[in-house]
Amino acid sequence: MESLNALLQGMGLMHLGAGQAIMLLVSLLLLWLAIAKKFEPLLLLPIGFGGLLSNIPEAGMALTALESLLAHHDAGQLAVIAAKLNCAPDVHAIKEALALALPSVQGQMENLAVDMGYTPGVLALFYKVAIGSGVAPLVIFMGVGAMTDFGPL
Known about the structure:
Layout: H1 2-11, H2 18-35, H3 41-54, H4 65-72, H5 75-85, H6 91-100, H7 103-115, H8 122-131, H9 135-149
């Protein structure tokens, strides 16, 4: 029985929230519309797949390194971050201080979290590299435009 309990907790289903469950259902609906009904597959397939990946419970795929640090609640590491931000060493106070901090300070805290061994999730890296820099929208629109303009000759 213990192994079954460990399996269920390891899968993350025990941590599934109501919002995540709803978003997983919406993502599956979008994937079904794109694949089975062929309704705007160029638009709905990536949206559904991204929604599915970002709402997997306890996967941390969309978390930055600093968000991962705050999710693990390590008292020593929280104390280091809190000392840099001049706030109380609890997650709520750190989040409030980060919301009010300058972007340069937020970047320093992110780098500190990376130095402590935390890594950003795959979707957070994709956002930073592709979307945050503005490259992905250009490539996507060029690709969709090329697919619609240059059909079979």
